Amino acid sequence: MTRVAFIGLGLMGKPMAKRLLRCGHELTVHNRSRGPVEELEALGARAASSPEEAARSSEVTFLMLPDSKDVRDVVLGEGGLMGGLKSGSIVVDCSTVSPMTEVEIASKLAGLGVSYLDAPVTGGTVAAEAGTLTFMVGGEREAFERVRPLLECMGRRIEYMGPSGSGQLTKLANQIAVAGTLLAAAEALVFAVKVGLDPRKVLDVIGSGAAGSWQLNNLGPKMIERDYSPGFKVEHLRKDLRIVLEVAERTGVPLFGASTVHQLTKVLSAMGFDKHGTQAVFEVLLRFSHEA
């Protein structure tokens, strides 16, 4: 049994924290809203009033937060982890944030004798609930090996990608591919609707061949039903693609597909779809094609 803290109990963080409890670990949790904390308390977790308090009682602290600023504030800000971390402990950030932020934080925590891993995930809420996430991890190899058993409580594939920042860079590559296949799936199904085909039959046929993808096969049925309930929110994809494009600008990499989807997420935000699932890209394309 390991003493673990988990900070950030949203769509992904809450089921991940539950998996750690199921594995028998002693868990302390902190979240801005009280509801998820009470749910975890009912399952045996202990609540902390601040990240600093959570860190005091933990050997390993996990983060699952919205953006780079949130991670920096939780780790380095007033009442943050730095005030409670002990030498020899490990912080594992499962958020998707800027690689530069992760390198900066890793450097500052190293001065305290604390290891910091960037370990973003892919697989969405379904995989988080099932414990089948994929982790892509950057940081010290020794720290990675120490936390691997904890990651295996939450994920099926655990990959060490290299030094600090490497996990986030891998996740950004993942999001580039996600954005491209999401757009392709939505365009294919809008096209099917507009030319008079049965989109369900089209989905069944093309999803079993070379056009098949996770986005098409998992989100395609929701697009057809215009079910935009969130597994992965539009606002989070927009944030991820913003980071992708910032890194691409620094490195001189042209990203035509990611740029297009980033713009579409801005349109979705203006339409009020920020909290909806990313399959709502289908709705934008329908409306552009004058199909209401």
Explain the layout of strands and helices.
Blueprint: E1 3-7, H1 13-22, E2 26-30, H2 34-42, E3 46-47, H3 51-56, E4 60-63, H4 68-76, E5 90-93, H5 99-110, E6 115-118, E7 121-122, H6 124-130, E8 133-138, H7 141-154, E9 155-162, H8 166-194, H9 199-206, H10 214-225, H11 234-251, H12 256-270, H13 281-288
Helix pairs in contact: 1-6, 8-10, 8-11, 8-12, 8-13, 9-10, 11-12
CATH architecture of the largest domain: 3-Layer(aba) Sandwich
What order do the helices and strands follow? Answer: EHEHEHEHEHEEHEHEHHHHHH
Number of domains: 2
The pLDDT mean sits at 96
**Which structural class is indicated by helix and strand composition?**
alpha/beta
Q: Write the CATH fold name of the largest domain.
A: Rossmann fold
Q: For the terminal residues, how far apart are their CA atoms?
A: 54 Å
Fourth CATH level, the homologous superfamily of the largest domain: NAD(P)-binding Rossmann-like Domain
- Main β-sheet: number of strands, strand sense, barrel status? 6 strands, parallel
How many helical stretches?
Answer: 13
CATH class of the largest domain: Alpha Beta
Instruction: List low-pLDDT spans.
Output: none
Q: Which radius of gyration do the C-alpha atoms yield?
A: 20 Å
Instruction: Name the beta content range.
Output: 5-15%
By DSSP, the count of extended strands is 9
Q: What is the helix fraction of residues, given as a range?
A: 40-55%
Q: Tell the overall outline.
A: globular
Strand order of the largest sheet: 3-2-1-4-5-6
